[in-house]
Design brief:
This protein is an alpha/beta fold. It folds into 2 domains: 193 residues, Rossmann fold (3-Layer(aba) Sandwich); 174 residues, Rossmann fold, CATH 3.40.50. The protein is 43% helix and 18% strand. The strands form 3 sheets. A 6-stranded parallel β-sheet has the order 10-9-8-11-12-13, sandwiched between helices. The radius of gyration is 21 Å and the shape is globular.
């Protein structure tokens, strides 16, 4: 989802008259250390990295730690003082601080951190990491390095801003920067194969979850809903993506004998958009253990397609207030399984309600999350005199 968002950001920057270069890893050892190409008018520099997805945690940590070193080794010969007027970087990952520092120093420019994940805090909240441990201190070092390189840090909501400033004693320059999306819906071409044919289903209402399948999402929460919805013959749940809890959902499908759901591995952005154009409800979950208040980027994809949003979040998350108040979805607190099921049942039984909520979601997208407004905010921050 981050790749999709940054691609849309890059295209909007180009539309507004800027030149854009994306620096991102590639993982093909047989390819050159640096691959240069273009995608939709965007220059892309791909530097060779070790794998950071679907590998053991220690190996992933080592490879992520080396991201800045490997990136700079690959691109430094191409960067001079006139190469860049600003740097926009994204967290996660927390390991690009050193690279940003080197580019800023050589180009004498400012930087903007789009902060979308309070790691390692969420891992501590979820019990995956012990507070005060050596590994926590290790990650905290790189987290603070990343923050220190930013002239502006954009977090996604008011409560996230409060939490971040409280946790960091307001030592960093922060602002609210919503997630964003292009406002143009995707329409399925007649040549594309039907998703329903692929899944072997007909008139079922399809509840779709697409993106990272990991601890932060609490996939067991979605699987409990899937099990509860077995009472409806015409409800089907589709999970698409990669992550640490893929095994969990596949195991629960077998253990609970769930015939009302399917899993597919990650797909290309084009395929992802094709799927969004054919499903009925956009599904998401956030772990009840989170202290941060995330706005998952996948929700914007749902809004673009005027899909009603169905989800559950950690207690106090202002995302619930925003979406529910604007009638853009039905969001409950993670752990309130009965409410989650009731909300799903409402959408299951009422096609007009699904249509109405989906339309409200698109209006909320226009109001709060248009990529053009986001680009204006970022460029203004980068252009402000130091």
């Amino acid at each position: 989802m981050a790749a999709k968002m940054f691609h849309e950001l890059a295209l909007e920057l180009i539309d507004q008259g800027h030149d854009v270069t994306i620096i991102t890893p590639h993982f093909e050892k047989c390819e050159p250390t640096l691959i240069e190409d273009r995608l939709d008018g965007v220059a892309v520099w791909r530097f060779l990295s070790g794998q950071i997805k679907d590998v053991p945690k220690v190996k992933r940590a080592i490879n992520e730690t080396l991201l800045s070193h490997r990136a700079w080794s690959a691109i430094q010969g191409k960067v001079d003082k006139d190469s860049f007027d600003g740097v926009v970087y994204y967290s996660p990952s927390i390991f690009f601080g050193s690279l940003v520092s080197k580019i800023k120093k050589r180009c004498q420019c400012k930087s903007y951190l789009v902060l979308r994940d309070f790691f390692p805090q969420w891992a501590i909240d979820s019990g995956l990491m012990k507070e005060g441990s050596l590994i926590e201190r290790y990650f905290r070092f790189f987290e603070s390095t990343s923050y220190r390189q930013a002239n502006t840090i954009g977090v996604m909501s008011e409560k996230n801003l409060e939490i971040f400033n409280s946790n960091t004693e307001s030592q960093y320059p922060t602002t609210i920067l919503r997630n964003w999306a292009n406002l143009s819906p995707h329409y399925l071409s007649d040549k594309e194969a039907s998703l329903r044919e692929r899944l072997g289903i007909n008139e079922e209402v399809i509840y779709f979850y697409g993106g990272n399948i990991g601890h932060a999402q609490d996939m067991a929460n979605l699987m409990r809903l899937t099990r509860a919805m077995k009472s409806f013959d015409d409800a089907h749940f589709l999970f698409v993506g990669q992550g640490d809890e893929v095994k969990l959902i596949n195991d629960l499908m077998k253990e609970w004998d769930l015939t009302n759901c399917s899993y597919l591995p990650s797909v290309s952005q084009t395929e992802f958009k094709d799927i969004l154009a054919q499903v009925d409800v956009g599904l998401f979950s956030l772990s009840a253990q989170h202290s941060a208040h995330n706005f998952p980027g996948k929700l914007l994809g749902y809004m673009v397609q005027s899909l009603p949003i169905l989800g559950s979040v950690n207690k106090g998350n202002d995302l619930m207030d925003l979406v529910n108040a604007n009638q853009a979805g039905l969001i409950s607190v993670n752990g309130d399984d009965d409410v989650f099921f009731d909300n799903a049942s409402k959408l299951q039984n009422d096609a007009e309600l699904r249509k109405s909520i989906g339309a409200s979601g698109y209006r909320l997208l226009e109001k709060e999350f248009a990529v053009g407004n986001i680009v204006h905010s970022i460029v203004e921050a980068l252009s402000h005199p130091q």
